[in-house]
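Much of our argument rests on the idea that a fold can be written as discrete symbols. In the encoding step, the backbone of a single protein was reduced to a row of integers, each denoting a local shape. This step matters because it turns folding into a mapping between discrete strings. For completeness, the protein is quoted in full, as a sequence line and a line of structure tokens:
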Amino acid sequence: MTAEPPGPPAPLWIDAAAVARLLSPAGAADALAGVLAEGLDPESCPQRSALPVPAGELLLMPAASESWAGVKIAGVAPGNPARGLPRITGSYLLLDGPTLRPAALLDGAALTSLRTPAVSALAVRHLTPPDEPPHVVLFGSGPQAYGHLEALLAVREPAEVVVVARDEERAGLLAAYATRRGVPKARTGTAEDVAAADLVVCCTTARAPLFDGRLVRPGATVVAVGSHEPDARETDTALVRRAEVYVESRAAALREAGDLLVPVAEGAVGPGHIAGTLADLVAGRAPADPAAPRLFKSVGMAWEDLAVAVAVYRAARREANGGSACET
């Protein structure tokens, strides 16, 4: 009897702990930079689909390249933190591009917790001076705040981190964590601390501006990642009007980024106010006005999930193969 030929390897299950272990924030930022350098055009990325459900919202985010395809199904459940559960849930299905056979299933929340700070870290690499330890103000105290702290530590060496959050106790815990991670000075603070900041990072669920944009000093960088809704924002019109604005994709930002859409609706700026994209920064097109504040507004895109998921999968295959370069 003829033996059956071996089939493809079984899909890997990559849980949250494995996602965090297999790929660092810096490695995830490198993966994002790599696909942009290879010519990926975020403007062609499929739109996010959103479905209101009783518990919150379901998001469907597909993306594909010649080698890979994938889709994230994410749940956004605002009531979960009160239950002791994460606000973001979900899974990511990674497929082989030529055959569309499943290659891996990844914990979607862990992937998002890695991908979003990596996008910010990539922007920070290009928008902040590499040789000047920044004074950082970090808004938020949840998983994304911790993830962004780790990502910042991977690409810069902050001189100080000031944590601003609604919950003073949780802000203190994050500041203490920053101290344990080697930040020379870490403390809690208030929104007014942005006046002395070189880098302001906003990763909250706020729907209204967190601080007065007039306080941000020339040359400082603001990163805002907390919202992908056209009527929610973390930064105000004053900052947007003053700043050179960078985004992942012009189309996605003008569809989902309330930080930009609200000032446009007010008539304060036009849709053409966007100075450039993440791809422009990776390609070496630096900010034009060194004296202006810089604002990087992220909404999260499916191509980013795919790039990071592939990097995690490749690391998992290497680990399974004993560290060799063989992978499917």
Remarks:
- DSSP finds ten helices and 14 strands in the chain.
- The first strand starts at residue 12 and ends at 14.
- The CA atoms of residues 27 and 311 lie 8 Å apart.
- The mean pLDDT is 93.
